[in-house]
Each structure stands twice: as C-alpha cells, then as structure tokens.
What does this fold into?
Amino acid sequence: MVASSQTLATEAGMRILRRGGNAADAAVAVAAALNVCEPTSTGIGGDAFALVYDAKTKKVSAVQGGGASPAALTLALCRDRGHLGTEIVPSTDALAVMVPGAPAVWEDVIQRHGSGAITLADALEPAIELAETGPPIGPVTAELWRRQEDLLRAQGATCMLTKDGVAPRAGERMPNPELANTFRALGSKGAMDGFYAGPIADAIVDAVASRGGVLTVEDLKRHRTSFPDAIATTYRGDVTVWEIPPPNHGLAALLALNLLEATLPDASKGEEGAEGGVARQHAMIDAMRVAFADTLEHCGDPTHADAARAKLSCDELVSKAYATARAKHAGLSPEKAAEGPEPGHPGVIGLRPSPDTVYFCVADGEGNAVSFINSNYDGFGTGIAPAGCGFTLQNRGHNFILQEGHVNCVGPNKRPYHTIIPGMATRTSDGSLYAAFGVMGGFMQPQGHLQVVSHMVDLGMDPQAALDHPRWCLGGVGSERGAASVLGATVAVEGETEGGSSRWRETTEALRGKGHPIEVITGLDRTMFGRGQIIARDERGTLWGGSDPRGDGCALGF
It folds into this structure.
C-alpha cells in the first residue's frame, strides 16, 4: 500500500512494489515523483527524513537527512547583513540555504533498507518519466503554486513557471526536462558524485553566491546522512509512538501525548470522549502549548557544541515523570485554558503553520513500512533555482534564531531546529506495526501527530476517519513568527465541512468558552491544518490506508 498527497506519486510507488521492490524502494520513487507533481512543497533541493519499520526484527530505524549550515555562516555575518536583535534570517535570503539532505537520504534508504532488487536509478524512473511528459497539476497544488508566482519571478526560477511565466493551472501539464536530467545524473553517478560534487554542485554554489549566500562546494561534499536512534513514548499503554530526535521537533509530539495522558487519563469514555468531545480537544490544545514551549527552548542540533546549552535532555523531556510534573507546574486544568509558558519559552520562532511539505508512507507485503517526509520548508524554499537543474533550494536556515547563547542560535556547520517529522507507531505488547503516519506542514506537524494518534487510539477511528476529522492548529492564518507566545497563540479551528456533524461546531464554541482564542478557518486555507497520510495494519494483518481530503492525493493497495 502507498499513501501520498499526489495520485501519480502514489502510482509511482505502486509501480516499484509491483516490480518486486520493498517499502524502502517504493518510498524513494514516491519522494522523487512528488518533486515533479508537487514542487510547491518538496524537492531534491530540500531535506528528507524517514522512519523504517523492519518486520523481521520489529525495529524502528531513523534516517535523518537535515543538511547543515555553511561553514561561513555565523551570527556576526548575519548581524553585518542587517539582521539585528533576535530576528530570524528572512526566508528568501540566500543565507537561509542549508546543504540539501534529500538526495543522500534517497540513496541511503535504498542501500540500507531496500530489497536489493531495485537500484536508485530504477526508483527514479517513474519521476523521470513524469518530468519528461509533464504531470497534470492537482487543484490544491495549483493554487499554492499560484500564490508563489511573484517569488519565482523575482528569483528567476523560470523552470517552475510555464512558458507564459505563470504557475500552471489545475489540470495543466507541467514538464520539467531539467529535473529529469538531474535525476538521471543522480541515478547514474550516485548522490556524492552526481549531486554533492560536479556540475549540479557547482550550479548550486553559483546560484547561492550570486545572491549573497556563503554555501560552498566543500560544504556540499561534507554532507552525510545520519542514523540516530529514534525517540519514543508509549500512549495509553497500547502503542509506542516513534519520532525523529532533535533537532527535529518530534519530541513536541511525544511530550504532548504524555501531557494528554497525564491530564486526561481516559479519553475514550462517555459523551466528552466522543467525536468532537470538548474535554479531549481542550486537553490536547493545552498539552500542545506546553510541549511547544519546552521544545522551542531546548531543541537544537545535539551534535553541535551549543547542545550543552539545552537545560533538559531529550530523554528527560519525553519521560512520563516529567509530563506529570510539567502538567502540574503549568496549571493545566479541565476548566479553562492554561496561562503562561514558563519555564520554557518559544524564543522568536512563532507557530506559523504551513502546508509546504510532503508526507507519505508505504507498506509492503513482507510487513515492512516506511514513514517518509521531504520538504523545501516554505513552499519553493528560497525560490533560488540553480541554472539548468530544474529545482529550487530550501530555506531551512530560516528556523535558526539570532540569539547568542541559545541552543538554536545560528552558527557554522550546524543543523537548525527542524519542523518536518515522520511518525511511526507499534503495538507496545508485541512490537508489531500499528501504523505509519504523518501530517505535513511546518509547526502543524506535531499537532497533527497528536490529533490523529488520539483519534485512532482513543476513539478507535480508522485511518481515513482520523484524517477526515476536523482539526485545530496553534497560530491563525495571519500569525507571524514571534508575534505571540506559544501559550497565547490563536487556536485556528477548522470550519464545519459540508455534511459535517454539528457536534464539532458545538465543540468549537465550548473551547471558546474555556478561554481559547478561536479563529475559524474555511476554504482552501484549511491546508494550514496539514495534509496527512496513514497506513495502519490491524491484528489480522490487513492494511488500512487513508489520505487527507485537504490535498490532491490518495491511498492505494494491491
């Protein structure tokens, strides 16, 4: 089974599975195909991460592909460029370009976890075909693309515009022969020789340098994927939820789950635990506020010298004992919204949600599963396109803060706080696969993880129902980074959809009554609530797939 945000990308993964590939092989095919079908959210110029479930060993392995900052990127340089105070680097500034981690991840996932029957070149074939012929663009993607026309024109990214200099419209086919050639080079030469060195690497460095950036070929050559231990917590004793460790903010999802469990010991009983239940939604919102406050204070690159500045370790933050004490200290109450973010604080990274990421998952016939995420960060990232390569470069450095002494302060050879997180869940009792899951989109991601896990575990929803359920998100449409503290942020709540239950509208009003500052969101802006995918395996071995109705994709199995 494959679930992704674009139907043709889902088909690309299915094609590899039918050729004898396993979940890892198919995942790389999906990742590459999404570069063609949804470049508004992802690309080979961005980063990628994966959690891989091995059915034989029942082990969950982490693949961490966040690129580091250039060796020449310092706080002093940012100050010299006029970025003062604790202000973050603007998202279109070339200083925000980190080393792209995605191509190395694609190669490493196949080499470490693949079947051996599919090469990297094989996995890229469907994406090359799509890039040559041009996939018809989905309606959600087309609208998100249209919103970034000005950025693409300003940065000269003509490879991402039609011959008329505009974004493709819904249903319009959009070939990208330059990207097809990039994929061929990657497939034939491998990541290190075909991307991180040679003509593509030179084009990347030239494009960044021409706009004042400091990325070098040496920075690119130095890049390697890392393979840390995944972090985890149990939820309700039933499932173990796995996340990528820092600098990714998966620990925010785990801490929120622990806080929810501590403040709402049984969310599945009675009317309040039913769909749209006020008590459960209220407890989740407050748990997420506190989880973000702590994560933004303590999450940084653990391999960098600044890691010593983190006041609490990741293990401490995801412990049950910490959640119990933290819930009491934060004054979490079933009666009213919590006040005050102490002792953690959000620095200057706000909670602006974003739909600009792709998440997908794959499960194969052997019982293996891959939870995979790939992103440019903000849409097309910086919008800077290396000449002749067919992709834009990410702006992940936008998530550094300019606060000397902070664990996430900008610095050389350092990975910034990272928003993209795949999720995996196993049954605590026997380690069997429960689900590969994820909800894409900036700071919505741990919030989406919290909500869909609760929907499935607490309410017994199947994957599609869990994704269909209305969601909330800290930070409204107009929220800017740093404009509000984590605990004071607006709660954007999805408006009632056609045919939806009136219970959700009643829940929304009840949350407002508890003191939550509610903003109701409708229409295409609902993409701010993320676009998730889930593949679950039940106790009988049957796969259940779901694909978010807020996107253009689907889940398919055979």
Q: What stands out?
A: The longest strand covers residues 47-54. The radius of gyration is 22 Å. Residues 343-352, 477-487 have pLDDT under 50 and may be disordered. The chain has 17 helices and 15 strands.
